[in-house]
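Data availability (excerpt). The following record was deposited with the supplementary files.
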Amino acid sequence: MDDKNFEKYTSAITMSDMEIFVFPELMYALVLADIMSPNVWRWRENGTFKKLRSKSVWRRLTRLRQFIMDEYDFNLDLETWGLTGKDRELGRFSPYISQEQIAASNALFGYTGDRYYFDVDIRRQFGLDAYDEGVIPYWKTETVEAMDAFKYKANYEKGAGECVSLAVLYAAAAFIVAGVPLEDIYMLLTPLHSQNFIDIKDGVLSNNRRVVTKSMWFNGTEISDKAQRALRNEQVTIVTHSSGYVHCLYDEATIDKGRYEHFNRRLGSYLRAKLDITSFASFLRSRTQYQKYFQVCKDCHGKPRFAKAETLFSYEHSSNNKLGDTTHEKLLDEVLDEDWQVYSWRNRVRCDHLEEYIQKQKPDMSKQQDRRQLERALGQVIGDKAEELVEDLWDFLHIEPRLPSSDKKYVGGSQIKIGVDDSREQIIEYLENQRESNVVADLAFYAYRDMLRCDWRPFVAAAMERNPVSIEMTKDMDIQGVYDWLGQLQNFSIYEGGRLAQPDEVANFGVGDGLEKAFLLANVILRRKPEQPLKIIVDNNKVVVRDGKDYRFESQKQLSREVELPAEKVMS
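Predicted structure:
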């Protein structure tokens, strides 16, 4: 490996936020690693999923959403994977991307987002304001095995992961469990978020642990408003797909050009709603400052009765029914008699009159003349406020995502072609056969941590360079004390077979195979005695860390190798 490829392959082991930004192939490599994982395939044996095998993809996807919500917490503990330095990371990535580009695109290096994020002080919200002295947290994307292992970590009762980990898991599980073809799944990364667009029906976005349909996206609830934040306020830095990726900063794109154009059209359609009384009610639900300009009329034994819009919206908080949708009349039936009056308010628009206007005029809100016409109609009742309201309404009804430009040099990456009816064994065999011609398939085995199929050097370099939690956790122990502590940890790996955890996974979850514990001990020794010659001798079930003294471990991995340290020996 040359230096650039070596850096990329070590990054496939640790998968930090910055590593994925610099090497966009890594994102889909991790998807393939999760697709190879036996952990996700076991979900198919869940009783509910078995019952849904004959049902629609949408039914399976909604069940998957509930399963992920039940089994995983959203984790934004910035210190889970330890701390690093800004200068160190900037220096590391300087051959690939400029400091200015990094600062404009990554929250750890100065990015603060667009107007929304300035208003809410996004760095304080994420806890990043605590890191302003050149020290920053690693944001690492977990494999499904690491996500599942959070249940072994103190103060966690089930699996967990940050947004990129959840997006990767959703993509893999949508394919394996819900039967969504890979070519219908597109992954979108922004500086502060990651989500997937699934190309079924009108489109679905997976967002952290949830899936959001187009109607949910525009329903005006607080959850939907939060789901919109990234696409409303951030540049999409990477779109990745089974055919390749497109990056906002790189001139070359490996994604299939036709697929990317299709994605642009489909996402654009998903992010735009037509004006009808349902979408208008959702607008008022979201932009509560305009509720005071509207009233609702209902028939009461042949006579009209009127209620203030804000009064009726307050009933939604304790009801399953909503204004403006199919449960509208049921909500009106819940309203107390004293909240209705016999006279209308002259300075409030009647929603039934507005609905008649929309049905008759059919305004196209993308056209300025239709917006001006709606302003004049509303202005007859609410005056000058109509202009501001209509512009906010148009803003609510559509989002123009800032996607990477289509004006790229398309170099045609190799499409991953696996089908929803393929078995796990067939998929692994296919990916193995693709490794020489497809770098994403090759990187997938490194993200999968398969030490039987991979060069050990990237794993070892990552273990010795980017695992600060194990260093911090053992700082008050001498070397013998670290060895004794490792002997007290449960002796099993979170990875099956010949796959290995990194030292910080052992430290965080308090479990590890003897070989994994040996790498943790070596990491500590190397940090304290960087010039000391060090060997890890792996002979099937026996492992020795030798630094002049032998530290012995028992392993179930059945691997065989000698590893020499320090790091420059790893790369040779």
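Summary of structural features: The chain has a mean pLDDT of 93.
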